[in-house]
Amino acid sequence: MKHRRSLQLRVQDAFTKFMNRHLRKHDWKPQIVPFTGYGTADHVRVLARVVLRPSKPKSHLGMYAEQFLNQRGWRNFFRIPVPGFPVTIEAGEHTIHARTDHAGYIDLHVKRPGLEPGWHNIALESAECKTMMAPVQVVSADETFGIISDIDDTIISTWLPRLFLAAWNSFVMTEGNRQAVAGMARMYQKLLDDHPGAPLVYVSTGSWDTLPFLNRFMKRHGFPKGPMLLTNFGPSQTAWFRNGRDHKRYSLFELARDFPNISWLCVGDDGQHDPMLYRQFSELMPDRVRTIAIRELSQTEQILAHGSTTMLADNKDALWKPTMVPELSGEDGDELLLQLQEQKDKEKN
C-alpha cells in the first residue's frame, strides 16, 4: 500500500512547483550547490542540492544590490529547490545518474569508488547548468580517531535560540560581525596535527542554506575543513518543522556506521541538547566515543538560551548523566585542549 504524504509535505510540494514554474519564466536557472561529503575505500557519501538562482545582474546597480544582499544572512534562507532534477555523478570509477528528491537534495552512497585516502572532488553534471565539484574526504581504514563538532555556540557565537536575537543574527546582521568562540580553531588544528588524515565532521541543526556563510566564516577564522551534516528546515511526514535533536542523533549513528573503526571526540556546548545526545550515544555505543568535550556558555549566553543561568532543572534529558566515557568541560577551546592534553598524559602513564 502506497504511503500517503502528509499535508505539510503536499503544501510544500505545491509551493515548490508553483515557484519553479513562475521563476523559470523570469529567467531563473538551476544551480548545483555541492556540499562536503566523506567516505572510505568502501564507500563515499555525496551530498548536494539543486536550487533556482536569478541570472547574473546586467547593470551596475544590480551587481551592487547583489553584493549587499549577500552580506545579509536572511538571503540564505530564501532558496527555491528543484525537485526531480537529473544530475550525473562522476565518483572515482563510477558514473551514477540520479535525481534530486522533493526538496532538491542529493544524498547517496557510492560503493567502492576506487579513491585513495585524502581529499577528492566529485563531479556533479547536468545539461541545464554548470558542472560543480563536490569535495569528499576519504578516510583510511586504519584511522581510529575522529572529531564530531557542533557549530552553534560551540565554534560560532550565535546567541541562539531566543527568537528575536536568532532572527537578528540570521536575517539582519552582516557576516563579518559573527564571532568565533575563542580557541576552538586552535584546538581542532592541534588535534588534527596530532592525527593527520582524521576526519572532523561538523554536525548541526542549522539549515543547509547557511552553508556558504559557514564555509566563509570557517575559512576566515582558521577552522579546519571538514564534512558538514546540516538539515533541511522544511516539513516532514509528521510535522511542519524537522526535529533538530533527531537530526543530530541520527547523524551520530550514521557516522558510527560509516566509520566502524573510529572512536570519536564529541565536542558541543551546554546551551541546549549536546550533552544529553552525546551521553546517549556513548551509552549505546561506548566503543565509538572516546571523550565528550563540552564548551560552557557564559551566564549571559545561558540566559539567552533558556532563561536561566543553569540548564533547566526539569529537563530530565539534560540531567541524565551516565559515566560511560570521560567528559570534559571548559569556557573555550584553549581550556578544553589543555584538559585533553592532560587526559592524554594520564593515559600514557
Automatic annotation (TrEMBL):
- What's an example of a GO molecular-function annotation for this chain? phosphatidate phosphatase activity
Q: Name one Pfam family in it.
A: APP1_cat
Task: Domain (Phosphatidate phosphatase APP1 catalytic): give its ranges.
Answer: 145-296
Q: Can you name this protein?
A: Phosphatidate phosphatase APP1 catalytic domain-containing protein
| Organism of provenance | Propionimicrobium lymphophilum ACS-093-V-SCH5
